[in-house]
Design goal:
The complex is a heterodimer of chains A (134) and B (132). With 134 residues, chain A is mainly α. Chain A contains six helices and no strands. Helix content of chain A is 78%, strand content 0%. Chain B contains four helices and no strands. The chains are: A mainly alpha (134), B mainly alpha (132).
């Protein structure tokens, strides 16, 4: 069958030739989490948009009181976490594809990661405060 | 690998006539980048809601300017476009809808869905604002 491919290393089995050259066993998780967050965001984002459009007022007092309800805060937390993680994964791919200068690319990749962490931390802290104070 | 490659690289995008497929594809990325900025603004708004009421009202005020309203409209359309095209991508990930006719049908369906959902949302939002 594949005699020509084996000509150079006749004593090596096909398995031996590919061992160590394949999957690092962690490369797929970006792809999987991009899709997982996408699916989660379908109901979460529809819920967020519907809420923003139908709330009678987005003035500070009313909005804070609404977000202070535990279930609302929890849903908002999951929405923002999935959204920011989805955005971080997407921006990472875009930067890897289009930014060719290595130093700029690495800087931007780190900046995206840090910004996402700062944003979700700020959101978490804010929601905890709203729920406890409200 | 280590030597700089000076030969021209393929694909030469500039020689292609823009097609529905390629335009929708790059728009998915462009809308995603634009929406990421929206995610940051939303995070800032939630932070301000809890810790900085004047900042919250300032940002809300910015959204009531003409530019702010325009940005909101663009964000709404970008969201529903990315949302609809994202569902199209999820079907592709399941191996469905790859034939050329289906790719065009789903492409036009995504555009129609994005326009309709944007119109409904903005129309309802506008209606609610007038009602206040």
């Amino acid at each position: 069958m594949s005699t020509s491919a084996n000509k150079d290393t006749p004593l090596q089995t096909p398995l031996g030739r590919v061992r160590g050259l394949g999957s690092a066993k962690s490369g797929a998780h970006h792809w999987i989490y991009q899709r997982l967050t996408a699916v989660l965001l379908i109901p979460l984002m529809l819920c967020l948009v519907a809420t923003l459009v139908t709330l009678p007022s987005l003035e500070h007092g009313e909005a804070a009181a609404y977000a202070a309800q535990p279930l609302v805060a929890l849903t908002l937390f999951f929405t923002m976490a999935a959204m920011l993680y989805h955005a971080k994964l997407g921006l990472t791919v875009v930067i890897e594809d289009y930014v060719h200068c290595a130093c700029v690319r690495i800087g931007m990749l780190v900046a995206v990661k840090i910004l996402a962490v700062i944003a979700i931390s700020a959101v978490s802290l804010a929601l905890i405060k709203l729920v406890i104070a409200g | 690998m280590s030597q700089p490659n000076t030969r021209p690289l393929s694909p030469h995008l500039q020689v292609y006539r823009p097609q529905l497929t390629s335009v929708l594809s790059i728009s998915h990325r462009a809308s995603g980048v634009f929406l990421s900025a929206g995610a940051l603004v939303l995070s800032l708004l939630i932070y301000a809601l809890a810790f900085d009421a004047p900042l919250y009202e300032t940002v809300r005020g910015l959204f009531n300017t003409t530019i702010g309203q325009g940005a909101l409209c663009l964000w709404t359309f970008a969201f529903f476009y990315h949302f609809s095209n994202g569902i199209r991508h999820l079907f592709w990930d399941m191996g469905k809808g790859f034939s050329l006719p289906n790719v065009y049908i789903s492409g036009y369906a995504v555009l129609a869905s994005a326009l309709v959902l944007t119109t409904i949302t903005l129309g309802y939002g506008h209606y609610v604002n007038i009602g206040q």
